[in-house]
Amino acid sequence: MFKYLLVVILLIALIELATADFSCYFSDSICKSITCRNCKVATCITGDCVCTLCDL
């Protein structure tokens, strides 16, 4: 039972990472890498990652 619960929690976490509305739940480094390429400054606004300075 505990193994199934752990698998479900991990699947939910992976689905959350894959969604377009990436929440800033984990860290700024993940936020920077997902929001845009070479993001210099990433901030969390209402749970969404927003990159303010990008190098395209």
UniProtKB/TrEMBL annotation:
The keyword Signal appears for this protein:
yes
Q: Which UniProt keywords apply?
A: Signal
The positions making up the signal sequence are: 1-20
What's the protein here called? Protein CBG05533
Source species of the chain? Caenorhabditis briggsae
Organism ancestry: Eukaryota, Metazoa, Ecdysozoa, Nematoda, Chromadorea
